From TrEMBL:
Domain HTH marR-type: 12-148
Organism: Streptomyces curacoi
GO function term, MF aspect, one: DNA-binding transcription factor activity
Any Pfam family hit: MarR_2
Top-level taxon: Bacteria
InterPro entries listed in its UniProt record: HTH_MarR-typ, MarR/SlyA-like, WH-like_DNA-bd_sf, WH_DNA-bd_sf
Alphabetical list of PROSITE patterns matching this protein: HTH_MARR_2
Full protein name: MarR family transcriptional regulator
GO BP terms in the entry: response to stress
Length: 155
């Protein structure tokens, strides 16, 4: 039996397209500012942020890829480019010969420490300054609920 598509209502379509457009415009603007101000791509920044959030600034390739929602090949190629610029290093996993770690370097820490204040100011001026505290709480709640469902469906 053929399923019928659950088409979006005009209100749903408007909200969805507005969200997508916000995501695209905000992401693009933040990426350009990062590149211009810090010489880091949005992908570099995402990797460095993730590594600064874990103990010892090191994470297994597969865990980092999962956190960033990246395919294995994208992760390998991007980490190789970052390693070539001295931002990270690859360490073999002694317990598992098939595994490896990505580790932030001193240069990587310096890069993220220089970029973070500029990025935070851009997030404030481009986004946070234009929403109320109540809207921000609602956005946080909605985002957490959708991400939890996505994580649940991935397992």
């Amino acid at each position: 039996m053929e399923e019928t598509a659950r088409w979006l209502t005009s209100e749903e379509q408007h909200a969805w397209r507005s969200f997508v457009r916000l995501h695209e415009k905000l992401g693009g603007r933040l990426a350009r500012l990062l590149q211009t101000q810090s010489k880091l791509s949005a992908a570099d920044f995402a990797v460095l942020v993730q590594l600064t959030d874990v103990p010892e600034g090191r994470q297994r390739y597969q865990d980092l890829a999962r956190e960033l929602e990246w395919e294995k090949s994208r992760m390998s190629h991007h980490i190789a480019r970052m390693a070539g610029r001295g931002l990270v290093v690859r360490e073999e996993c002694l317990e598992d010969a098939r595994g490896a770690f990505v580790v932030i370097t001193a240069a990587g820490r310096a890069a993220i420490e220089a970029a973070a204040p500029l990025h935070v100011e851009a997030v404030r001026s481009l986004f946070l300054d234009h929403v109320t505290p109540a809207e921000l709480r609602t956005l946080g709640e909605v985002s957490e609920r959708v991400v939890a469902k996505l994580d649940e469906d991935q397992s």
